[in-house]
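Example record

Each entry pairs one chain with its bound ligand, pyridoxal-5'-phosphate.
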Amino acid sequence: MSDPQISIDLARIEHNARTVVDLCRASGITPFGVTKGTCGMPQVARAMLRGGVRGIAESRFENIRRLRDAGIDCPIMLLRSPPLTRVEELVRTVDISLQSELQLMREISRVAERLGRVHDIILMIDLGDLREGIWPNDLVPTVEAILELPGVRIAGVGTNLTCFGAIIPTRENLTQLVAHAQTVEIMTGRPLDWVSGGNSSSLPLLLAGGMPSGINNLRVGEAILQGGRDTFLTEPWQALDRDAFELTGELLEVKTKPSLPIGQSGIDAFGNVPVFVDEGDRLRGIANIGREDVIAEGLIPTRPGVRVLGASSDHLVLDLTEADPPLAVGENVSFRMNYGALLTVMTSEYVEKVPMRDVRETGEAKTYAIETDAIGGALVVVQDVAQRIEHLGFERGAEDADKTLTLSIRARKRDVLPFVEEAGRRHDALGLIWIDSDAAMMPDGEAGLPPPENAVLSRMLTCLPPHIAPENIVLIGLRNAAPEEAAVLKALRLRVFTMAEIDAVGLRQAMRDAITLASAGTRGFHLCYAPTATDMSGWSGGIGGITVRETHSAMEMAALSGKLRSLSISGIDAALPSPIGAECANFILSAFGKTIL
Ligand SMILES: *Cc1c(COP(=O)(O)O)cnc(C)c1O
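Structure tokens for the complex follow.
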């Protein structure tokens, strides 16, 4: 049995972000995208940024750290006041935060001054929803007090609605916000950067043309993630896509049972007295999803006829009598979710998160491009690489075209860096599979210098984001790593298949996992290959590495996946014996899809 999974379609999220951004732009509004519904998943943030949001807003430090770790360097807004003990982290990691308590702002100012910084805040004003915000009567004295704080700058004012009191945004209450903003501008003597008019629930007003001018920011999560499933309840905004997320579980039991429990009734596992309706005998199913994972009431089955009856901690009980087509044990059942259910699923450790991208690429064009230095060029000529690639049905194409499979052959590993960087930029989001005996993760540019070749990957990691993210990078075939490199690899949480692990699970399994990781939420991957990864007869460079046959197998799998976008071979030199050069050319052809038959 596999764990329940939630698939996350990044293309739909990007589309929704773009739709919201375009609507906002027409009214002079610059929105931030809110990722808290996905626990700050970096791929989701990147999809929002591609869609044009100005920055990312988050409610938790853990999520912000996850975003920053993944190399996301856009402005980040914290949506919630931090506890006093985490003020330093706030000042260090967050560009702007929503605030409503003077005591906390005093502490922020103190810490910011100590760190030599000024922290930007958006002063929250409560317009009646009764969650966060100062009361409008307190605005003037509060602003006066803040103006005394040298470490804090009022970058804007904002409000939050429809969260606690279910008060909806209207022209009236948001006009009040604009008036409060003007008051603050008069007091500070300068224009505010932001007048932040709420969350997704402000979009219906914007669509209806009722947004007062002067509002220039919204913080939008639900409408981008869920396509407004909860925001536009009665009149959906058709331009948004509601199907970015899908939860899938497996049916562990399917049996016909009566609809009324038998025996004396007490309370259920959660302290409630359940009520049942007698519908006679029904076909019931149990899926491997429970209250540990989801608010079951927020699940919407995708298959017609399936009904959710309830859930205990680990079991979801379904009525399958009218499922169309019918469902059997061992089959999958899938669900859409409301926002509350989504939040719980994304937080559950038991649900596997699978970012993906609706495959829009159709009809693979078979074009290729090659770039080399002198040594790589010699290899191409001697081994007749271009012509052999053309025999496989490829035509020479433009290097910068999306669908061209590009190849770089260079002596020094560091020289492929610009090539990989360019591939990342061209494909927008790319994974990286690094097949090499060495980690190349030595810290760059310190005294007692390692040769630059030993720092290539660490250097790559600083210049590749946001196009290539650490969670999409996999190392295969590692057998040499200095202790400091091992430490860096662990800290970065890169997936590494060492030779020891390849011995244990086999190269095919390692490569299968690598392709999955490198392709998760990307448009494909780049493969970096260094010949020292392979143990080739008569050459000491690769002793202890994967076999020639395994190397071919890895290349063939890359080709078969349909996700290989570019390939680089480096770490070769003029002294490389010619049989090794010939073997490298054969590996290249395998990566271009050559098979034995
Ligand atoms: C969660 C949150 C948002 C985003 O709300 P959505 O309904 O997901 O758009 C905006 N502002 C604050 C203060 C929030 O806590």
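Residues 34, 36, 59, 79, 98, 160, 199-201, 219-222 surround pyridoxal-5'-phosphate (CB under 6 Å).
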